[in-house]
Amino acid sequence: xxxxxxxxxxxxxxxxxxxxxxxxxxxxxxxxxxxxxxxxxxxxxxxxxxxxxxxxxxxxxxxxxxxxxxxxxxxxxxxxxxxxxxxxxxxxxxxxxxxxxxxxxxxxxxxxxxxxxxxxxxxxxxxxxxxxxxxxxxxxxxxxxxxxxxxxxxxxxxxxxxxxxxxxxxxxxxxxxxxxxxxxxxxxxxxxxxxxxxxxxxxxxxxxxxxxxxxxxxxxxxxxxxxxxxxxxxxxxxxxxxxxxxxxxxxxxxxxxxxxxxxxxxxxxxxxxxxxxxxxxxxxxxxxxxxxxxxxxxxxxxxxxxxxxxxxxxxxxxxxxxxxxxxxxxxxxxxxxxxxxxxxxxxxxxxxxxxxxxxxxxxxxxxxxx
Amino acid sequence: xxxxxxxxxxxxxxxxxxxxxxxxxxxxxxxxxxxxxxxxxxxxxxxxxxxxxxxxxxxxxxxxxxxxxxxxxxxxxxxxxxxxxxxxxxxxxxxxxxxxxxxxxxxxxxxxxxxxxxxxxxxxxxxxxx
Amino acid sequence: xxxxxxxxxxxxxxxxxxxxxxxxxxxxxxxxxxxxxxxxxxxxxxxxxxxxxxxxxxxxxxxxxxxxxxxxxxxxxxxxxxxxxxxxxxxxxxxxxxxxxxxxxxxxxxxxxxxxxxxxxxxxxxxxxxxxxxxxxxxxxxxxxxxxxxxxxxxxxxxxxxxxxxxxxxxxxxxx
Lengths: 370, 130, 176
What we know:
Largest sheet of chain B: 3 strands, antiparallel
CATH class of chain A: Mainly Alpha
Structural class of chain B: alpha+beta
Strand content of chain B: 5-15%
Strand order of the largest sheet of chain B: 2-3-5
Distance between the termini of chain A: 28 Å
Number of strands of chain B: 5
Oligomer: heterotrimer
Radius of gyration of chain B: 25 Å
CATH topology of chain A: Cytochrome-c3 Hydrogenase, chain B
Helix content of chain A: 40-55%
CATH class of the domain at 44-125 in chain B: Alpha Beta
Order of helices and strands of chain A: EEEHHHHHEEHHHHHHEEEHHH
CATH architecture of chain A: Orthogonal Bundle
Distance between the termini of chain B: 69 Å
């Protein structure tokens, strides 16, 4: 801690509207300029990884979605895929397509929510009201499909839990048309907005040379012009059979990351349209899996990764031959972004830019402290 | 810093004004209610003439939210334990695993999902008989 | 690229894009620095630790990812559970800082050379590191938290079935 009178120490968060979740950043300020930053987490420590040790696989399934509130589905997908790897279950083509559909819907929802957060962090509150409404329409479809709005608990080891309701794909198609018709509005008011550009260009610049080595993921990489996406590089489910692009943008700043996400909304809509077209008519949505206490994993370990709306979610999972999972370790995109990267980016920034930078990195505490 | 005037970026946000004349997307809650789709994970129902009191639901519940309590009058002769589930809604997470493992499929979730009470100790819920 | 590493190390292929290499604790730094500098496995994605209490070891998996992010290599090593120590990887990867801090707090592993092993998520934690398997979550919860009143009438179904069978038998005999 600095003891001279020049630096002022303040806590940005945990109760601050501009912080992305229950965490805080300890800032050393010289006037308005940040001279030192340190991330603190622990306000949301729910001990998921410990709880999973004493639960059976089926019981552990309901806890993983709680690791990320805005889009729980990549976690469910990771968990399901890791269990399938360790239990040698192969899921049907139809289940794979349904999973891709759910993942992309979740990505769209998370990106719309991000748009509200990012615009709110620079004072453009109107956009948040629109985009959260648009996200709600996606949640309505989730409600119909899975029975829950936020925590879907739908992607299950062995497939998915419910059959598509009648006419679901048509309604999804209509929603996509509606969302697509909204995009020019967001362009006009948010992405092209000169006040957003003035605030965001040149702020929070990530060094592209060290981005790959330092393990940055998702939009942070793509905002530096580096084309990396788990869906393309290490394809899972049926992503290798779908045609989509990875949007990139040069600059590495907040604006570049926003423009990458703008492109991703369009790509997600494109993927969903292909999924609707290619969805197999029949096929088991759920493979036969052993009953509750008979479901055992072999003594082995595996590593799986899924691209979420904020970057790569990776799970390490080890089984020990019993019905319980020996170890499941979660690595979310925020773990590196929230500590090493954020602490570095905030140096010599203005205090008023902290919320904007955190939002554009997509930092979310539950996946840091699990 | 770029000082060139960004004319398009300055004018286009005023598009938002057109939204002033549109019908709002919100609904007037108590008088207009949102339609809850079929299959929503709301409160539990239990068909007592089918429930066999096997406690599979209690076994699978990871939140330990389910108690098996004695039934007042036997409605199902196959119910060998004479117990039926009661759910602690302070702990339930509505994952619906209990309904998945129910052998006679008597335990189900209904669409109704609104319950207000001022004491959290009152959230012990006896599933409705349906 | 993985082929040239395969000539030098005993790398096992687990899946099409997932590889595993098991090394000794002594050759840890040498192997990690060699692979991260001379192959395209340049990024550290995760340090995963599993507690195998029955063998008295921690199994650590250092997961390296290629520059193209298309292949993952798990480098596994075992360290003893008591007085577990490892050299830090901070000189190779800045992201190791927070991963090692996490493992230090959750397992009590000492990473020699990492100056940032202060509190991560737990504040003023005085008990044994919580992710070690001898830490009993249920006992801790029972000690520190109350349970909701009104749930004491829960019955054990197996006991209940036995009791009712015995009762039915008794009634039958009495009727005879």
